[in-house]
């Protein structure tokens, strides 16, 4: 069974209690459980990984780049948190693994918020972007990934 990576960046471990007016009351554990169940319904095995460390996110993208090349992974749904707006290294990692489809996902509508959230270093390297649908965005991104890159039944 091919794998799909759900990757979450800094502070997303605080989902459920962090700024609920922006991010809602659903916890990361809830998001990961519903993502894994939806991936299984599509016929994929989800791996869920969150880190507050940029290097750990880079290492995970590299690992999935290798799995993708080996035909063992379909792609990745990635909420890079604040690293979205700062990290050329994440941009380079997605470009560098050359092929792994990454769907960038943001819970809040970053374009309706502070100006420093309007620019993303990840978007030019992403295969698709889902913004502003709350935590449902993770499932919308999963559907998009499978529809665009999954095997046709
Ligand atoms: C976020 C938006 C980012 O600007 C912020 O730093 C986050 C969460 C979102 O999901 O809406 O940590 O990526």
Describe the structure using short key phrases.
153 residues; Rossmann fold; 5-stranded parallel β-sheet; 5 helices; 39% helix; 18% strand; binds 1,3,4-trihydroxy-5-OXO-cyclohexanecarboxylic acid
Q: How would you briefly describe this protein structure?
A:
The protein is an alpha/beta fold and 153 residues long. The chain has helices at 20-23, 28-42, 54-69, 88-97, 136-149, and strands spanning 3-8, 45-50, 73-79, 102-106, 128-131.
Going by CATH, the architecture would be 3-Layer(aba) Sandwich
What is the CA-CA span between the terminal residues? Answer: 15 Å
Number of helices: 5
Task: Work out the radius of gyration.
Answer: 14 Å
Q: Please trace the helix and strand order, writing H or E for each element.
A: EHHEHEHEEH
Query: What's the overall geometry?
Result: globular
What is the CATH topology classification name?
Rossmann fold
The CATH homology group name: Dehydroquinase, class II
Biggest sheet character: 5 strands, parallel
List the ligand species: 1,3,4-trihydroxy-5-OXO-cyclohexanecarboxylic acid
Mean pLDDT across the residues is 97
Instruction: Give the low-pLDDT segments.
Output: none
CATH domain class name: Alpha Beta
Whole-number count of domains: 1
Specify the oligomeric state: single chain
Strand order of the largest sheet: 2-1-3-4-5
Q: Report helical residue fraction.
A: 25-40%
> How many strand elements?
5
**Class from helix and strand fractions:** alpha/beta
